[in-house]
Amino acid sequence: MRGLCAFHVDKSIEEALDDLRSIGLKMGGYLTPDSDSRHRFIEKILDDTQQTLNVGSYLYTSRICYFRRRKLYCRLYYDSFNVNVLKIALFVSFDKGVLRALSQLLEALGWSRILYFEIVKYSHPQHPGKTFL
Question: Measured between alpha carbons, how far is 81 from 53 in angstroms, rounded to an integer?
């Protein structure tokens, strides 16, 4: 995993999906953890992050999506009383830089970032050849 990010959305599902389409994100299929060990791993990451965010009793779907030809995994949380309202969106990526670009575009559309974590390699100029994580 390279990183994860989460957004407070609080928009109608139609408006939220329009936002995602407008930045070039394409929704794929649903995660199927019963049939794929990698999907079980992704679901575990999403579950752990859900506990950290203290999401509560929202309903959710876990999806595979694509952004700039890169695969992302997302979990979309819906209001328990009105499933037509998207409350929170959580994204996981295995590619560097994808979440940074996604985050900038969604924030420009009014999405409020509540979590951003990305693993990057940092090489210090005084120690060329050494990589710090």
Answer: 20
Task: Specify the pTM.
Answer: 0.84
Q: What is the pLDDT of residues 59-92, one digit of tens each?
A: 999 999 999 999 999 999 998 888 899 999 999 9
Distance CA 65, CA 91 (A): 9
User: What is the SS3 assignment for 103?
Assistant: helix
Question: Under DSSP, is residue 28 helix (H, G, I), strand (E, B) or coil?
Answer: strand
* Max Cα distance, the chain (Å): 56
Q: How far apart are CA 57 and CA 63, in angstroms?
A: 19
Within 10 Å of residue 55's Cβ, how many Cβ atoms? 16
Sign of CA dihedral 45, 48, 49, 55: positive
C-alpha–C-alpha distance, residues 80 and 131, integer Å: 45
Give the whole-angstrom CA distance, residue 1 versus residue 39: 12
- Domains within the chain, CATH numbers bracketed: 3-118 (3.30.310)
